[in-house]
Structure formats: C-alpha cells, structure tokens
Design a protein that fits this description.
alpha/beta; 6-stranded mixed beta sheet; 10 helices; 10 strands; disordered C terminus
Length: about 250
C-alpha cells in the first residue's frame, strides 16, 4: 500500500498552560476525504496549522505526502494547499490579480490558462476583474477555493469550504471537490460545522474534544454506533462532554 497523504502520531501542542492538542494520531489515505470536527477550542485550527508547517508541535510526528513536516516540509509544501473564507486576500487587487500573484508564488506554469480554467469551473467569470474588497462573502469563498486549487494540490486542507454560499452554489462546490479528489487521487481534510456537508463528503471523521480525539470512523458508522439519526446529533453529545452511548441507554431506561 502507498503511504498515506497524512500521518499524525502522538501529536501535542501546548500554549503556556493550555494543551491545545493532546496526543492525537490519525491518517488520511490518498484519494479520500476526512473530516476534522469539534467545537470552538477543540484543537482543529491548531492541528491544521501544524499540518501546514505554520506551527511546530510540542511533541509528536507529522508526515505529509511521505515527508517529515518537522525536517522536510519544503518537499511537501508545493503539493499541498489550504482554503478558508476567513483568510482575507488583498482587497485592492482584483480577483485575477490576486490569483496571478499566488500562481507565481506557487510556481504554477501557465498561470493565465489555469485561472481561466478555475474561473469557468467555479463560475467566477463575472467578477474576475472586480477588487476582492467589493466581493460578497460567497464570492470570496469561491475565490479562496480557487487560490487553493491553483497548484493542483495532492493534499487540500479545507476550513468551512462552503461558508456563506447559497444552497445551489454550495452543492456545486461539493460536487466539484468530489470530482477533483477522484480525478487527481488527492486527499482532502475538511474542518466544518456543517454536519450534512461532512456526511456527504467524508469517508472518515475525527471528532475532537478538548484537544483529544473523542471518537472517529465513517459518518454512517458513528451514527449507528450512537443510535442517532444524524451526525449532528452525535457531534452535539460529544461536544457537550457526554458519552453518547451511555446517554442513549439512560434515556431508554426512563
């Protein structure tokens, strides 16, 4: 078997007295989508930042695309990318200008052609010349995703990829991500509070609570294991610090 796109083992990150990530481990095989779920402060953003090489862990091992991110991250970075609607691009530059700058930073060949392709696939043609500061929240979300796809990454880290999108556009983006994953054999790691989106896209999820993985598995397996109807119900039990299975048995006894 080929090496997984992401392999995390015994990962810890401490900020002063706070243990933000507390000994987690997981893998994400190539060609699959994994969900990283949890409430605010659960450790999702810290984990993503470590995977991107933006933060150094306090302890533990992180391998991305076969490379040790502590010593060889420069070998993995050209083949990975990150998208978040909460990270602003320069407001005065147009969408095309922003994408052109990032395309050159990523070393993309045929940047103009790649931007044209993404503009068509993500329906951005109408606002390519518009300054980013004048875009709607949904348009900014699509531009952030286009930026992350410029270098055709083998690992794509996604933070709320359909935030602020209307249902039709969100569905189109999810379909696009599924097709991209399948066509390129890419791995996607998704952090989202949209449980319906996670159920649709993810082959496997890890639910973080207070820096630890409280539970993990395919969405359908988790729903059945906890005796619930949706992944959101499972998430709520874990996020509120309850043992979901014990809670169900307790309710059945009443």
């Amino acid at each position: 078997m080929s090496e997984p796109a992401v392999a995390v083992d015994g990962l810890y990150k401490r900020f002063g007295p706070v243990m933000a990530v507390d000994g987690i481990g997981f893998t994400v095989p190539a060609g699959t989508t994994a969900g990283l779920l949890g409430g605010n402060g659960a450790g999702k953003t810290t984990t993503l930042s470590i995977l991107l090489g933006l933060l150094l862990p306090t302890a533990g091992a992180v391998r991305v695309l076969g490379h040790d991110m502590l010593t060889r991250r420069f070998r993995a970075l050209p083949w990975m990318n990150f998208s978040s609607p909460y990270v602003d691009l320069p407001h005065r530059l147009s969408v095309r200008e922003n994408l052109t700058v990032y395309g050159h930073l990523y070393g993309v060949r045929g940047v103009r052609r790649r931007i044209t392709q993404l503009a068509e696939e993500l329906d951005m043609g109408a606002f390519l010349k518009r300054p980013v500061g004048r875009l709607s929240a949904g348009q900014k979300t699509r531009v952030a995703l286009a930026k992350a796809l410029l270098n055709r990454p083998r690992l794509l880290l996604l933070d709320e990829p359909t935030a602020s999108l209307d249902p039709d556009t969100a569905d189109r983006v999810r379909t696009y991500l599924e097709r991209y994953r399948d066509a390129h054999g890419a791995a996607l790691l998704l952090a989202s509070h949209n449980m319906a989106e996670v159920e649709r896209l993810c082959d496997d999820v890890k639910i973080l609570h207070q820096g630890r993985i409280s539970d993990e598995g395919p969405p359908g397996d988790l729903i059945r294991r906890y005796g619930r109807e949706t992944l959101e119900e499972v998430f709520l039990h874990i996020a509120r610090g309850r043992d979901g299975i014990a809670y169900i048995y307790d309710m059945e006894d009443r």
